[in-house]
Please model this.
Amino acid sequence: MNQPFSVERGERYTLIKVAAEKLDTLVAPALKSELVVLNADGVRNLIIDLAETRYCDSSGLSSILVANRLCKNANGTLVLSGLQDPVKKLIAISQLDSILKITSGVADAIDAIVAADVENNAD
Model:
């Protein structure tokens, strides 16, 4: 299997595009370790694009929560974008939709990061 996700570093954020149809025990550990590496490298703002992901299990959710915690601890922002219905439902059932920032697409996610960045740097 080729790399289940790609990482694109921007000036204000890093975009992780998950190319796997399933964010599960096969993909989540690699994603988690990538998140830790990015965080150690000073990345504060993350966009995780899940447009191609149709299924997410507890280990996938766990990797999303790791991303959220790392971003929060670095005074940054995590935004999820492009959620398909099954993944959206899982996040809602887990009551994480109140904690996580979710946008319909990457462009909206970038806007959300820029707005949050401006807000965080205002003080």
Observations:
- The chain has one domain: 5-118.
- The helical segments are 28-40, 58-73, 85-93, 106-122.
- Residues 5-118 form a domain with the Transcription Regulator spoIIAA fold (CATH 3.30.750.24).
- The chain has a mean pLDDT of 95.
